[in-house]
Amino acid sequence: MATDGTGRVFVTGESSLEASFAGKTLTSRGATDIYVAALDERGGLEWCVTSGGEKGDNAYTMAWHPDGRLVIGGGCTAPATFDATTMTSPGGAEAYGAILKIK
User: Fold this and answer.
1) Beta carbons of 34 and 75 less than 8 angstroms apart
2) How far is it, in rounded angstroms, from Cα 12 to Cα 73?
3) How far apart are CA 49 and CA 91, in angstroms?
4) How far apart are CA 84 and CA 51, in angstroms?
5) DSSP β-bridge partners for residue 49
6) 87: nearest Cα among 64, 63, 54, 60
7) In this predicted model, what pLDDT tens digit does every residue of 27-59 receive, in sequence order?
8) What share of the chain is helix, strand, coil (3-state, %, to 5)?
9) What is the reported pTM?
10) Is the dihedral of CA 94, 85, 79, 58 positive or negative?
11) How far apart are the first and last CA of the chain?
């Protein structure tokens, strides 16, 4: 969990099959996928996204950078897609760090 200092809160984690946030359902593409959600100062959902691939993907940490970026880190079994970028690897699990564009 992270906050931007204005009352917005960001949460991250992983889910299998589906994750629901205030009526919006995210469907997993694989064993587990990463989710990130933003909540306003009243706890209302602003947005939520999912990232990952066909295998297990996890989110372990998150931080708000003062210049307006949200950074998450974790592990994934490539190939895994984060927004428009696909991470590949020679095999096995990989660590990742991702910077999210805030909506």
Assistant:
1) no
2) 10
3) 26
4) 10
5) 36
6) 54
7) 888 788 888 999 999 999 999 888 888 888 899
8) 0, 65, 35
9) 0.84
10) positive
11) 17
